[in-house]
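An instance as discussed:

___
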Amino acid sequence: MRETEGESAKITAEVTPSLDLIFDLLSNRRRRYTLYFLHDQPDGVATIDEVTEAVVALQSGDSDAGSEHAQTAMDPGPGPSAGPDSEIHANADCSSDLEQRRLRVRTELQHTHLPKLEDAGVLEHDQRSETVRYWTQPSLEEWLEHAQHKELS
């Protein structure tokens, strides 16, 4: 519980990660996106689904991610099959592709990135409740904020 209104409920981790570990954690785009999202949460807590959606959304904003997907949805191709039915199929394909992307991201987060961040003491992953709690790391946040500014601005 917060003692006063407006006070941050984020909890600071007890161990400061080394600079090598910080750069290793930030070397992967999905880990960075996860950390950007969790850092922006008022209490540092989110569900796996929320983290997955945030990572997928940030990747969709990348110039290389999703551009091919968007092109195929806009251009159903030449010929008689380019009618309303082909547009429905293209939208269904996009929806299917998005669900597959979400599943891949979620699986990679759960099996690779969240355990690595947890081992580093940056977050706590509760598999039973499917939640993640970010532990404030001032030395990590200095570089995280710089990376976020450079990458997403």
Q: What stands out?
A: The chain has six helices and four strands. The chain has a mean pLDDT of 81. The first helix runs from residue 19 to 26. The helical segments are 19-26, 29-40, 48-60, 67-74, 84-119, 138-152.
